[in-house]
Amino acid sequence: MILKSFEAFTGGTAKVAMLSFSSMGSAKSDDVTKVADAVKIAQEKYPEVAIDGELQLDAAIVPSVAAAKAPNSKVAGHANTLVFPSLEAGNIGYKLVQRLAKANAMVQFYRVFQCLLMTFQEVVSLTIS
Prior knowledge:
Blueprint: H1 2-10, E1 15-19, H2 30-45, E2 50-55, H3 57-61, H4 63-69, E3 81-83, H5 87-100, H6 103-112, E4 114-116, H7 120-128
Parallel strand pairs: 1-2, 1-3, 3-4
Helix pairs in contact: 2-7
């Protein structure tokens, strides 16, 4: 499982944020429902893993934003593993970091964050299998 790879790579424990354009129901749409459903499945399948969502990126990684947008989350503000809602969104996030971060910051970024480029269908498949 990818979390074992994260732990081996960083020596830390994964805190997984399922990303969305909504934080904890702040918006309603089929896309948000898919993320929320994937979170429920993952939490049921892997109760020992710190996983939460749906979270906007800033709520996932910035403690002060998390306090306002997701105050009851144990992951929000401290996520170190990001699951994007689609391959397209994941690729955009990856390219933003790749192009905007300086080389030294990029090395630090990958020590802290593991960006997962998978669709929610793949996440659901992983949690069901």
